[in-house]
Automatic annotation (TrEMBL):
Full protein name: Heat-shock protein Hsp20
PROSITE patterns (UniProt xref): SHSP
SUPFAM superfamilies: HSP20-like chaperones
Signal sequence coordinates: none
Domain SHSP: 25-137
Pfam families documented for this protein: HSP20
Family statement: Belongs to the small heat shock protein (HSP20) family.
Amino acid sequence: MNTTNPFDEIEQFLGRTPFAGGRTWGRDLRAADIDVAEYDDEFVVMADLPGFDREEIDVRASGDRLTISGERDTEREDGDRRYLRRERRHESVTRTIELPATAVLEDATATYRHGVLTVTVPLDAVDADEGHRIDVN
């Protein structure tokens, strides 16, 4: 059963606009932009996370969901600058994706290059709807 929360869609919409979103006490919360592809033997998620270091990215798989999150502080010490307004203190992005029932989580891999995180989750070759084929000798 695929249930969706209408508030998730509203949050994602607000997180994509430059002036709205979950800005609270110096924290900018937004959704990561993703591409999702499903092939015969793997499920691939590509997420745009520009400006993050590998250490600032967290990828977790739990049950039937994959959660990608990144958190960083953009505050830098610069004694020569006199800011009139400063909002770039902390940035946090997150995205949760529903995984196929045949996902093999223990064999999942993730790579991060040029601001793009790619998570690859192998799929079990046996489709649950088709059952297990037995060869006849």
